[in-house]
Amino acid sequence: MILSALLTSVGINVGLCFLFFTLYSILRNRPSNANLYVPRLVAEGELEPEDEFSVRNLFSSVKWVKRAWQPSEDELLSNSGLDAVVFMRIFTFGFRVFRFAVIVGIFILLPFNYMGNQLNIDFTDLPNKSLETFSISNVDDGSNRLWIHFSAVYVFTAVVCYLLYSEYDYISSKRIAFFYSSKPRPNQFTVLVRSIPTTSGRSVSESVESFFREYYPSTYLSHSVVRRTSKLKGLINEADKVYKRLRHVKSKKYTQQRFKRSGFMGLFGQKVDLLDHYEKKLEDMEGNVRTERTSVAGKEVPAAFVSFKSRLSAAVASHLQQGVKPTEWLTETAPDPQDVYWPFFSSSFLKRWMCNLAVIFACISITFLFVVPVLIVQGLTHLDQLEIWLPFLRGILHLKIVSQVVTGYLPSLILEMFLSLVPPVMIVLSSIQGYIALSQIEKSACIKVLWFTVWNIFFANVLSGSALYKVDIILEPKRLPELLAVAVPGQLLNVYEPKFETGGKFWPVVHDATIFSLILMHVIAIGIFGVKKVPLASSLTIPLPILTLIFNSYCRRRFLPSFKGYPAECLINKDRLDQSDPTISSFYDELATAYRDPAMKPIRYSSESGESSHSPLLHSA
Amino acid sequence: MILSALLTSVGINVGLCFLFFTLYSILRNRPSNANLYVPRLVAEGELEPEDEFSVRNLFSSVKWVKRAWQPSEDELLSNSGLDAVVFMRIFTFGFRVFRFAVIVGIFILLPFNYMGNQLNIDFTDLPNKSLETFSISNVDDGSNRLWIHFSAVYVFTAVVCYLLYSEYDYISSKRIAFFYSSKPRPNQFTVLVRSIPTTSGRSVSESVESFFREYYPSTYLSHSVVRRTSKLKGLINEADKVYKRLRHVKSKKYTQQRFKRSGFMGLFGQKVDLLDHYEKKLEDMEGNVRTERTSVAGKEVPAAFVSFKSRLSAAVASHLQQGVKPTEWLTETAPDPQDVYWPFFSSSFLKRWMCNLAVIFACISITFLFVVPVLIVQGLTHLDQLEIWLPFLRGILHLKIVSQVVTGYLPSLILEMFLSLVPPVMIVLSSIQGYIALSQIEKSACIKVLWFTVWNIFFANVLSGSALYKVDIILEPKRLPELLAVAVPGQLLNVYEPKFETGGKFWPVVHDATIFSLILMHVIAIGIFGVKKVPLASSLTIPLPILTLIFNSYCRRRFLPSFKGYPAECLINKDRLDQSDPTISSFYDELATAYRDPAMKPIRYSSESGESSHSPLLHSA
């Protein structure tokens, strides 16, 4: 890649940024878009879709950028929860790392690289210079200037480790503070119990009740047994569809009635038939749902959400082995009620195990098949090869601007497009892997994407054979967060509507990924110093990954336990605060039904669709 | 090694066995040896050293063999605890595995091996045949007979896995039963707390007291802070020595007084001076001990044994993170009071870390240096080489019996002698590694010896280059338990005086080692089938280690948690039983002082030595 191609790419990106920025500033003021741009405010009822937005003009609306930077972390915390704060801090962390890397890279390393003579490139025609002139490739073999790179690796590692440590420290203290300040939440009082043994003639529900009444007599509150509801869910989905069609027909009827008044009489009778047909069908379906719902009561899965009166009891139940057999009465911390992913509860161990194997196989296949788009991109950066493969393009490719776009912008665009397909695919794969919480699915997908990226950058690297050049790319994925960091705050505050709250549990993933990147950088540095014939620098870099790993193990010991659960001290203090809280008894009432399968909750067509109202359905289950 | 040499070796071993058996049968009847042969009975006062033993004769005493096999497991359990039972079961397990291996090996595999022609050895002179004639080496390459070996590997693995499973199941159920039947034991009610934070002006003891009074108000009982007592221990050791000398002089004085009566007057005055000297010295030392003991009170280590009123509270405290900082208030299950290894409590984290590193280095060095005796042994089995190195031995070595002893018996004797040095060395190494329980030291030493053996058998193997022959050796370490199993029962019942009780916690080590041996056998089998040109058998053996590992992971999930702690169900039931037990309050009193450092317990010279009695010392600390 040559310098002018890079600059073309930068120019296109900046132009697109400006375009999107302008479009966003205009579109967000349209009242009809409020649902799309400020869904959280609409959802919370703080903003009516047809509000004051309509009077503002384009230029005043650019102020959102300023407003976006204003909210403090505390505002974010109270509005969107700890996860949003941690999310923001991850961006800020990325930005800080990038800022340091840019300063060191541009003002120290780049000039020294440029002064090298290794690549013997003509000095006169700067725009057409290969980017390698600015990379470490251009430093003379065995040159003492390589010691500047050596120092940079040490200093960069130290700075990143310092940032990681202070961030970990900050987030874990925030986590405790958030726990203290949060209202009682169902998942703090609840454990998920699996592999519940049943004796003959006794239901799962009775087993759970008698076991926990026996061993936690003073703190056991209630339980919800999980039931096989996939058939019920199917029926409800069908009923939903019919209900939507019914509403559609009704609204048409309404317009037709208005039309009728103004003279159109035509197909009215037929519409009434259709309406009757759908209402009849919905009535039948509601009957089916009711029948299925009564039969579901018997379809118990040996798993239950068990709620306690105190957080400590829930923690004790989740930490201690409960039954004599270690394979029975398995307990784990329950996810948020909104975070529960129901479909995989009812599946057997064998089915889950096979799904798991299939997902692993699929992930590996996708990771390897991704080499196809990478090869296409590699072809584009080598224009000469492209001319050989597709000779008819020769005329176009020789236009300067085309060649710059093709070699500078198109490769990264194509790669980004393909890369953007990966996360949704990984989420689908993770969701069929048998997790019981949406947050677990997202975390697993996140890790999958991470490994996918790492493997592909390296596999692509080996294929292209220019390992030295790629080092810059590895050091630069940090540029992405910067762009995002500018755009995200305003978005988070207005757009982000938290579905569940993990209390910042995903920070350790970011930490581990950063440590991995550092170790990778060290290994590459050791290799480069070897290639560049400074073996002493190579050997002196070896302690660095070891020190980094020691630092990591210290961080794991020092902070990670705080992300797995809450300490007894906090649980007991918080429980004591609750005792003096008058709202706790109403919370207990809510808690008793919090973990009911959504399919078992009353559906509301009846009250809305009017005619087919059946009060038993509303109060069933 | 040739057959006759093996038979010579077997003959010598059987002869030695008979000799030791006869010696034991005679010597155990000497009343003066009771302390040595039945120390447990003597210690428990069930047997006076000068008892009925003296009247029996040699032949009736051979009955001990019969009696040794009579005690049931329940007797063993009530006499020597669960550890003794598990120990016995390990021998029995080894014996069962060995019995199966012998039946398959001698009656199925050996005849087929012998019928092979691969090694082309003369059939007429059986005694001088190499043992390899009976090994798989003699089976023709590509022969269908190798499928018998293939089946044997599968069947052997299945049988061993079945035995492992039933043993694990049996021992873990015994563990729970033993827990239910056992009297309250201090370690069930106690946790060890480390890294106790202290605020200025507050002692560790005050910190512990206020923390546990705050968070476990209803169940917290007492605590003992660990103190730096190495100096005190030194003083007590010195005082012990002086006290022993004093007793020695006194007993001499007593005999001299008797001599005096019968006329010898001589050196009496001098003896009295010596007695005075030692008494004075002991008095000074007791003074020093008393002074040091008062100053020790201030030498607190940030660690304490914290006792609770219920087992559940102790389990909760050891399972949950206690303080907000995960590096403070670290809790773990306390060892038995008798099991506590005090010296390493007071050492700093850095010292422990450095000791750990040094021990790892020493272990690796010993493991590698062991190649020296192995090489000597290898030299002995190759007599011809020995003749070249030491030509003057030629005459002796050509005697048939000498050559058979040298090649058949001497190598294993020398190896066993060197091997017998390894366990004590490993115990010394483990004891300076920073463990706080004797049982942990023994377990760690056990694992070290295991890896030492595995590595050395293989390293020796690679050196000697006869990988096929050694397979038999790997399959045969199980022969050792059989010999031991015959001798051990009577011994365990009378000799074994349990110092501490782990509740059979070492069984998982045996399980893991057996699984490792199986996998090793599979890998070797895969290699052999490859070498013997039956690639299909080689490939078909590959699933076996995978299946074994799946079996192992199932066992770990199914049984291992039972060996790490007790389930909530058992803890709560046992606690409830205690509530109706009238002796529990006296147990609580004992518990409060159970974890006092032995150096802080009263010493008893004063009351026994009479003259230098100082009542404050008796009641101090």
Automatic annotation (TrEMBL), chains A, B:
Keyword Transit peptide: yes or no? no
Q: How does it sit in the membrane?
A: Multi-pass membrane protein
Q: Name one GO molecular function term.
A: calcium-activated cation channel activity
- In this chain the CSC1/OSCA1-like cytosolic domain maps to 188-343
Alphabetically list the UniProt keywords.
Answer: Calcium, Ion channel, Ion transport, Membrane, Transmembrane, Transmembrane helix, Transport
Its transmembrane ranges are: 6-27, 97-116, 146-165, 353-376, 417-437, 449-469, 509-530
Give the UniProt subcellular location, in the record's own words: Membrane
One matching Pfam family: RSN1_7TM
The CSC1/OSCA1-like 7TM region domain is annotated at 357-490, 491-529
* Superkingdom, taxonomy of origin: Eukaryota
Give the UniProt entry's GO cellular component terms.
Answer: plasma membrane
Report the residue ranges that make up the CSC1/OSCA1-like N-terminal transmembrane domain in this protein. Answer: 5-167
- Give the record's family classification: Belongs to the CSC1 (TC 1.A.17) family.
Name the chain's protein.
CSC1-like protein HYP1
Species the sequence originates in = Buddleja alternifolia
